[in-house]
Design goal:
about 130 residues; mainly alpha; 2 domains
């Protein structure tokens, strides 16, 4: 299915907003590592270490704006993909929880976000190939 003018325009707007959010996140992440980790414990250190969440909130804002720009069909398709990816992530992370009780190493909660991103990419790709 070929993308129309509206889809191309909304896709470009989404990429601009998401890239800006990722840039903000990356800059805040580097700053929090460089400046926050060596700080002594306290409220200021906690705020500095949490500052990358501002960029994360910008990412959520970009996703919400993108969903608002899409027509009903594309919105439903994308939300279905998100739901399937979330279910796949839940299954994988829940399964790994059982493996941790069997002696596998404990993983950081950051891994869940990476699994969700990979799951979203996989589900979106498989669904796009099936629609051909």
């Amino acid at each position: 299915m070929k993308a129309g003018t509206h889809e191309k325009r909304t896709g470009k707007a989404y990429l601009r907003e998401m890239m800006g959010a990722l840039l903000a996140y990356t800059l805040l992440l580097v700053a929090s590592i460089v400046f926050g980790r060596p700080m002594s414990e306290g409220l200021l250190r906690t705020v500095v270490l949490l500052s990358p969440m501002i960029g994360f909130c910008f990412m959520l804002w970009a996703i919400a704006r993108h969903l608002g720009r899409l027509d009903e069909y594309l919105r439903r398709n994308l939300l279905d993909s998100f739901a399937l990816a979330a279910a796949l992530t839940a299954g994988l992370t829940f399964s790994y929880g059982f493996l941790e009780t069997a002696g596998y190493p404990r993983l950081s909660m950051f891994v869940v976000w990476m699994v969700l991103c990979a799951s979203t990419g996989l589900v979106t790709t498989v669904r796009a190939l099936r629609q051909r």
